[in-house]
């Protein structure tokens, strides 16, 4: 080798050494196993509020209601509806019900979902059991019903809340409205 080739050889050897050092420094050869690496903390789960449910009826009404009385318990939707013609039919525990008429008074939009519950009480104001009425409208068929059928908005709808497995013959009832969904 001549002296003229020596700088080229030295430059090539330096380049090869640099490439080897770079390749070795960037490889996983000296890395710890995945299990030994520091764990990345997981994101905290999102805490959603618990679904709201209707409050349980009172076990005893004080003062005891009058025979045949139907009360309306104030709730989040009672100011948006008018309940009229309320009547308790209490021939026996298996055939008891509350009937009435409900109209939406807050607006004229269609009602998509409505639930009315009744808590039935004996003459001493003790809870005998409950029942519920459900009104749901969905899809295009619901809109077609409004041409000639009842609506909760406007003229309103008649409802019946049948008692479900009462432990005696009711003397009174308390109505609540846990669900009201308008368009």
Model description:
Helices cover 15% and strands 32% of the residues. It is an alpha+beta fold. A 4-stranded mixed β-sheet has the order 1-7-4-5, with no helix packed on it. The protein has a 3-stranded antiparallel β-sheet with strand order 2-3-6, with no helix packed on it. Strand 4 (111-121) and strand 5 (127-136) form a beta hairpin. The protein starts with 5 loop residues before the first helix and ends with a strand.
What keyword list fits this structure?
single chain, alpha+beta, three-stranded antiparallel sheet, 183 residues, 7 strands, elongated, 2 helices
Q: What's a quick, concise take on this entry?
A:
With 183 residues, the protein is of the alpha+beta class.
C-alpha Rg, in Å?
37 Å
Strand content: 25-35%
Which regions have little confidence, pLDDT < 50, spanning 5+ residues?
142-150
Specify the number of helices: 2
Please outline the helices and strands:
Elements: H1 6-26, E1 70-72, E2 81-89, E3 97-104, E4 111-121, E5 127-136, H2 139-145, E6 157-162, E7 172-182
């Amino acid at each position: 080798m001549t002296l003229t080739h020596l700088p080229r050889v030295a430059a090539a050897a330096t380049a090869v050494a640099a490439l080897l050092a770079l390749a070795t420094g960037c490889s996983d050869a000296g890395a710890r196993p995945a299990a030994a690496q520091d764990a990345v903390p997981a994101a905290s789960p999102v805490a959603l509020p618990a679904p709201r449910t209707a409050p349980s009826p009172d076990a005893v009404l004080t003062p005891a209601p009058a025979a045949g009385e139907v009360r309306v318990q104030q709730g989040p939707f009672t100011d948006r509806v008018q309940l009229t013609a309320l009547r308790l039919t209490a021939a026996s525990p298996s055939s008891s019900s509350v009937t009435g008429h409900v109209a939406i008074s807050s607006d004229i939009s269609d009602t998509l979902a409505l639930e009315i519950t009744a808590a039935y009480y004996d003459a001493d104001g003790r809870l005998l059991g409950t029942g519920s009425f459900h009104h749901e409208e969905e899809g295009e068929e619901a809109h077609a019903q409004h041409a000639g059928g009842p609506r909760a908005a406007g003229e309103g709808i008649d409802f019946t809340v049948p008692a479900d497995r009462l432990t005696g013959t009711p003397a009174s009832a308390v109505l609540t409205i846990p669900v009201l969904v308008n368009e």
